[in-house]
Structures are given as C-alpha cells and as structure tokens.
Amino acid sequence: MNVEKISLQGSGEWNEDALVGNERLNLFGVLDGATSLHPFRGPNKETGGYLASQVIKQYLESLQVEDASDFDLKHLVIQANIRLRENMAEAGIQTSDKAALWTSSLALIRIEDNFIDYAQVGDCMIVAVYQDGSFRTISRDQVAHIDLESKRIWEQGIENGIVKREDLWELVKPIILQNKSKMNTMAGYTVLSGEPHLADFIEYGRINRIQLKSLLIVSDGLFPHTELGSEPIDVIHELTTSITNSTLAGYADWLINLELNDKDCLRYPRFKLSDDKTGIWIQFE
Question: d(Cα 31, Cα 185) in Å, to the nearest integer?
Fold first, then answer.
C-alpha cells in the first residue's frame, strides 16, 4: 500500500485543515475546521477552526487497538464530537450558541483486509477508484446546496461590476453568517460542532475491496473551480481524473497556481483566494 499525503495552508492565517493517520488501526482521514462567528483565539492565537480540527485529529490518532476494535466509525466520530464539546466548554465557549462553536468537516476510513469502513460529515469527500479505471463517489458534499446561494450572489456582484475580492466578500458575508444557524438541522448541513444531535446526521457505511485500486480522501480546498459563465463541472470527476493522471501534490500545485493568477476571485468565483488543501491518496498493491 502506497500512501501520499498533503496538507497545505491556504491564504488564511492558520491551516485549519488536518490529516488523520493512525496506522495501528489503519485509520486515515481529513478534517476541515471552520472558525466560529464570535471571535476566539487560543493561547497561541489559534482560531477556533484550527483548534476544532486539532482536537479531533488528536483524539483519533491517540486511539489504541483495544480502544476502537469493537466500535464502528460512527461511534468514533461521536466520541470525537464529545471531545470537541468538552474542549470548547473548558475554553469558556457557550456551547448552546451556534455562532460561538468551533466546527470541522470530516472524511474518515478504516482499511480492513476485505472491506473499507467510512464515515463522513460536511464537505470532505471520499472516492473509490477501481482496476478498470472506473470510480465512484462514496460520500456526498452536504454543504454544496448551502454554498450555492452565496456563490450566485458573488457571481452577480462580478456581473454588476465589482472587481475587488474584499467587496465581493462583504456582499456575501451576511448569507454565509446566516447559514451557520443551520448546522446539524434538517434545513442545513452536517458538521462536527460538539452538538449532540450530530449523531443523527453522520453518514457511514462499508464498501468491499473487490477490484479496489485506490482511495482518495480530500478537503474541499482541493476541489477544482468552475470558470465564470461556464457550465458547472463535475467536481469529483475532474478532481479524481487529474490526480490519477498526475499525483496529489502535482495537482495541488496546479490548482494553487491557478488561484494565484486570479487574486480577486473573478475568473473562478470562490470565497477565498486559496483554501487550505488536505488530501490522502491511497494506492493498493
């Protein structure tokens, strides 16, 4: 088994993504933290998004075989969510206030001899690639429908003559802030937030390893961008094909260069110049 990993900081102050690698349990995953609406800084000026992904990462990587062998991945995600809530409470966060919560998306797999178990929350994604070159998306981007309205407003701003990313951000910021109230509700999206009812929304399951060639696990910072005015692209198809034909690192370098050549996010509408980019590309022998 060959494992390629990357975790690259975007244009933000902190890399709020994190890699999970617990080889004792053959447990691998990616996390994508998001900062709370109420400003918070840790003892070293860490953002809430950074702290969220690190708390979850540390819990999952600390697990020993005896801790997890009898539990499915849903249970482990629930336990990670509890740890996140405890850490927020210790930091003085009012955990009943959605706007104050540190949050993180997650895509997690555990590799066994004949099958792969998985769990997913938010917009981190898992793709299985087979020996014949076909692939299937194991997870669902549960945030895409929430982002769609904000992206449309961003594009309308460009069409109305706004040419600075900062001004476009101010245009969509109220919608993005409002969406935080929809975390872990039927009208919204899933995210690890310390909220107990996340347990009702975790997606998890098992695929077998027959003809399985490789697995791709990514945060949304690695998603390819759609050019303004173009038809929407099949994000997972473009992403998987590009990485299969290159490497994870090579694809990330290409995407970063594309973003740096569009600093006001006008040609490829998006909310950040460059989002954090984390991925794991596992190729089975």
Answer: 20
